[in-house]
Amino acid sequence: xxxxLVVILFVGIIVTIIYGILRSLQRVWLHHRLKMALLQKLExxxxxxxxxxxxxxxxxxxxxxxAPRRDLVITGASLAAIGVACLVLGKAMAVGRLAVGxxxxxxxxxxxxxxxxxxGWIVGRLTGRQGALAGGKRHDx
Length: 141
What we know:
Elements: H1 2-44, H2 52-63, H3 72-93, H4 97-127
């Protein structure tokens, strides 16, 4: 029974992480499609274009978040660091259930943290934000 509970908990965590990543990617894709549709509309009917500054302001407000979202890079790096700490602690204890749990938990946290951090980095690159690691500055590439 205990093993089943651990498996259900682990599957729930994996599903939640994948849902968060897919939701972020979907939001980025939706903002991109909205910008492209607006630019195509303005290209087809140039008389709607008042000034370039107005269009820049409009496009800037489409992607600006009202409140800063969680940064997946920081979360992923933290999870990977916790995994490394658990891995080292479990290896150092070497005997007992707690040591095995820490060791295996560390091995689970490290790839999940790296995956989450990499996905957060990709979402940040796609949205034009470098995230909290770079001071939240925008870059244009």
